[in-house]
């Protein structure tokens, strides 16, 4: 006796509508997936782990650079405060002579 044919992978095309009292209804037309579609899906699926690793590395890089920016901003504010205090002190000591120098 012959065995039944193997089931074909299917891809669904669905249309959604909310015609009856705001309740969404879906009508799906299924068609067999094409070999090219399956190969493309396999290619995409195969790449997912490496893409996730790349995204994680990129997120780590972003976090590291944001920390560096924050540290640089703190140093800038500290130095600006220091130089502002120094300038004010020199202006108090030497007045307009400091401006001419």
Automatic annotation (TrEMBL):
InterPro entries: SH3BP5. Transmembrane segments: none annotated. It comes from Alexandrium andersonii. This is Biogenesis of lysosome-related organelles complex 1 subunit 5. Belongs to the SH3BP5 family. Keywords: Coiled coil. Residues 48-75 form a coiled coil. One of its GO terms (biological process) is intracellular signal transduction.
């Amino acid at each position: 006796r012959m065995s039944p044919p193997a089931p074909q992978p299917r891809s669904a095309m669905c249309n959604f509508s909310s015609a009856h009292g705001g309740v969404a209804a879906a009508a799906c037309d299924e068609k067999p997936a094409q070999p090219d579609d399956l190969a493309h899906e396999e290619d995409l699926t195969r790449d997912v782990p490496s893409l996730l690793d790349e995204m994680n590395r990129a997120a780590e890089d972003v976090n590291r650079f944001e920390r560096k920016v924050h540290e640089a901003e703190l140093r800038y504010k500290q130095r600006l405060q220091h130089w502002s205090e120094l300038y004010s002190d020199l202006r108090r000591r030497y007045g307009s002579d400091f401006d001419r120098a």
